[in-house]
Amino acid sequence: MERERKDQGEILRFAQNDRRQRAVLNRIPKIKKDPDRYWRQVFFICDEYHEFATAGQNDPSGDEKFLALSREPRCIPIIATQSISSLHDALPGETWRTVLQAFRTKIFLTQTDGFSAKTASELCGKEDRQVSQL
């Protein structure tokens, strides 16, 4: 029943992160088995993502691993968070960098804290250079 609803394009809400990931990733063998069939895109839309983010580090269930595989089952993640700082604070150690890197496209709006602004500008290619006057 749940599979039929998903294939018909209805919105499903998963209570747990790993259930959502499993449901999407379980499409991969089905898509490979029937590549000529039209497979609908699956959207993962999450506001306040820092409240739900996970980083697996050595555990294969972290968001960074899911995001790295998400294009194959035709999943389009659309994620919003208050700032890079909030993601940094929510995840252990430097794992926030791995999760942030897993997003293929990043759009930064107004950044009010220095850490988020600096990180965003570095990701966009800005470098600090010291200029000497003659």
* Tally of separate domains: 1
The backbone outline, from C-alpha atoms, is elongated
**Count of distinct strands:** 2
Which oligomerization state do the chains in this entry correspond to?
A: single chain
**Spatial strand arrangement across the major sheet:** 1-2
The first-to-last residue Cα distance is 74 Å
Mean pLDDT reading: 82
Radius of gyration: 18 Å
Describe this structure as you would to a colleague.
The protein is mainly alpha-helical and 134 residues long. It is 40% helix and 7% strand. It starts with a helix and ends in an 11-residue tail after the last helix. The mean pLDDT is 82. It has one domain (19-121). A two-stranded parallel ribbon has the order 1-2. Strand 1, helix 4 (63-69) and strand 2 form a beta-alpha-beta unit.
List descriptors.
mainly alpha; single chain; two-stranded parallel ribbon; 2 strands; 134 residues; 7% strand
Explain briefly what this protein structure is.
This protein is mostly helical. The chain has one domain.
SSE layout:
Elements (H helix, E strand, L loop, with lengths): L1 H6 L9 H9 L1 H7 L8 E5 L16 H7 L5 E5 L4 H7 L4 H8 L11 H10 L11
Parallel strand pairs: 1-2
